[in-house]
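tmp note - Hydroxysteroid dehydrogenase like 1
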Amino acid sequence: MALEAIVIACVFFFRLVITMAAVDRFSLLYREISRSCSFYIEALAIVGAWYTVRKCVSLALDTYSALRLHVIPRLSGNTDLVKKYGKWAVVTGSTDGIGKAYAEELAKRGVNIILVSRNKEKLEAVSRSISETYKVETDFIVADFSKGRELYPAIKEALKDREIGILVNNVGIFYDYTDYFTNLSEDMLWDLIHINIASATMMTHIVLPGMVKKKKGAIVNVSSAVCCHPTPMYTVYGATKSYLDYFSRALYYEYASKGIFVQSLMPSVTTTKLVAFNSVMSKRSFLFPTAEEYASHAVSTLGLSIRTTGYWRHAIQFTLSQFLPEWMWAWSALYLCRVMRKQALTAK
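out:
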C-alpha cells in the first residue's frame, strides 16, 4: 500500500512540473492543478479504503478466533477427549507446576494418566491423589531426562501395550535465575538440551507410531512465549523452546492427514517453581496465573489451535508484544533480566 501511494505521488509531481512549464498564468496553473489532483485524490481514497477494509476484516477474524479459542469452549462444555483421542495420556514433568495441573485437568475429563518424572516419591503421591480424586486409572514411570538416550528403551517398553491418545511433553528446566550465556555451566547446557529438546523429540518418536496406527491422537509440546522473540539472558532456554515450537508446527502438517493433532503451547509467566527466583513473578496476579488456572484454559484449546498461548490473558500479552520492534523488545528484556539477576544474586 505504501509503495502504491509513493508511485501515485511521484506521477502527480511529474505531471505538475510539466503543467507549470506549459502555462504562464496563475489561473491557468490553478485550473490544471485542480484537474490533475482530482484523479490522484480519488486513487488515494481507493487505496485508503482498501487498506481500511483489510484491517477491519483482519480485526474481525482475530476477534472471532479469540472467542472461538478462549470463550466458546468454556461455555459449550467439555469435549469427550477419550472418544476423540484415546483412553490414556502420558504427561512428562508431571509432579509439579503446569505438568501436574494439566494431568489433573485431563483426569477430570475421564482420561487415564501415566505420569513421567524423576522423583519416585512425588510420582507415587501425585498418582494416588489423581486416582482417588478423579476416579481414573493412573500409572507412573520414573525417568530422569537429563541422563540422555539411555533411559528411552525402558520408557518404550513400559508404554508398548498402552493405548496412548494424548502425549504432553511438558518437562523442562530453566536456569537458577536469568543469566549471561558464558555464566552457564556445561552441565546446565547439556541438561537444557537433554530435558527441553531431546525428551520431547524422543517421547514423540516412541508414542506417535501407535497414534498413526489408530489414526487418532494428540501431542502437546509445552514451549514458551519467549520462543517468538530474541530474549537476552534467556538465550539457550528460549532457543530450546523455539525448537519445540518449530517441531510442533512442522509435525502437525506432516501428520494431520493421519488424524494426529499437534499443538505448540506457548505460556507466558505462570507462578511455578521455574520462576521462584523472582518474588514478583512467583506470586499470583492478573498477569501471572497459577498453574491450575492456566491448565484449565489450556486443555480447552486442545484440538482447536495448533499454536496458542493457551490462556486469554497470555494471548493479550503476546498480541501486544507483536507490535514492538525487535530491538525494543530485546533491550527492554535485557534491562529487566539484569534487574532480576541482581535481585536473585542479592537474595542468594
